[in-house]
């Protein structure tokens, strides 16, 4: 049995950290002002991001947060290949989910990290 990777989240606008491990951008749109070199990505996985419709509906409105979480988890359940792609990244160490939103508590990476951690707990 292998150890599940540590899942971290971080803004793409923050400099890469030495302990980031595999860096995965989970936004559907490329973040403004970030070069591909500065991003230092292992993977840009657009397919795991919330749908355009859900992203627009949410609009980073904290009042819609709980409903956004519910809807996004439903989308994740419908996209097992994208979820598997993150968990099967080659290498060891942490996986850092990167996002561009200003709000550090109400964004898709927070939901995705919780979802991935829940999957890991059901398989151990």
TrEMBL record:
Lineage, top-rank taxon, reads Bacteria
InterPro entries reported in the protein's UniProt record: YeaO-like
Pfam families for this protein: DUF488-N3i
* Name of the featured protein: DUF488 domain-containing protein
| Organism of derivation | Novacetimonas cocois
